[in-house]
Design goal:
By secondary structure, the chain is an alpha+beta fold. The chain is 27% helix and 29% strand.
């Protein structure tokens, strides 16, 4: 919460003191590879339909979303600059700054340094630590053991190069990408862990504590939404055909 407040304060200072560039990325970077790869709208619709209740809960907090694939090879330490493109109209040039192991190698934190959409001014009101947070992005690299395999995966399950998949594991990403006033949620979109949903979060829908009218209205609206989704889910399951050998 403190970090969020600091970032919010910094953005207010930026609004009052500077005009932020709307340029997506410098021209010299136009030929770089993009991280998120588009998929056909028909496939997006199919994935959303098959996972409608979990994805509806995620997209409730957003302004817009899309379902994509991701080029995880670009998260390697020596991949060079590439373009993070959460949406077709939003592009940020980044390069790997650091990859940190967590949980005995079963997950990693990738930190990317922004090469565009940066804060390059010095202001005594903004600490060097906060400036670094604004000029970097984090993603979390996870591993999931494939079902039905007998290999011993108790040791290292993510290689030194996180783009190299070890036998018997699935590697996927999650996290939030913050770019000044934009905040994007990244999550697996289905059980294959090959497709990802990107949601541009809506600050006006985020749940907040407190007794203000705004805070109560947000919580009440979310509670009403959740109640509707649960009813839809119950009705959907009731319409499903009974599996052979199942309850009659």
């Amino acid at each position: 919460m403190k970090t969020f407040l600091k970032l919010g304060t910094a953005f207010l200072l930026l609004q009052s003191s500077y005009v932020l560039s709307n340029e997506s990325f410098p021209v010299e970077y136009k030929d770089l590879e993009t991280f998120f790869q588009p998929i056909e709208q028909s496939l997006q619709n199919e994935i959303f339909k098959d996972n409608q209740f979990s994805l509806k809960r995620l997209t409730y907090f957003g302004k817009r979303y899309r379902i994509v694939k991701a080029n995880l090879d670009l998260l390697a330490e020596n991949s060079g600059p590439f373009i993070l493109n959460p949406f077709e109209d939003r592009h940020i040039v980044v390069e790997t700054e650091n990859i940190r192991d967590q949980h005995r190698g079963t997950s990693r934190t990738w930190t990317g340094k922004k090469l565009s959409s940066r804060l390059d001014v010095d202001d005594p009101k903004i600490s060097s630590e906060l400036k670094h947070q604004i000029n970097s992005m984090n993603l979390y690299i996870h591993t999931k053991r494939q079902e039905g395999l007998d290999e011993d995966l108790s040791r290292q399950v993510i290689s030194y190069d996180p783009s190299v998949v070890q036998i018997g594991t699935i590697i996927y990403i999650s996290g939030q990408l913050r770019d000044f006033h934009y905040n994007y949620q990244i999550m697996p979109a289905d059980s294959t862990y090959e497709n990802f949903i990107i949601i541009e979060l809506d600050r006006k829908k985020s749940l907040v504590s407190g007794d203000s009218d705004s805070a109560r209205d947000r919580r009440n609206s979310h509670a009403e939404f959740e109640a509707r989704i649960k009813q839809e889910e119950v009705r959907y399951k009731e319409r499903l055909p009974v599996k052979k050998g199942g309850p009659q």
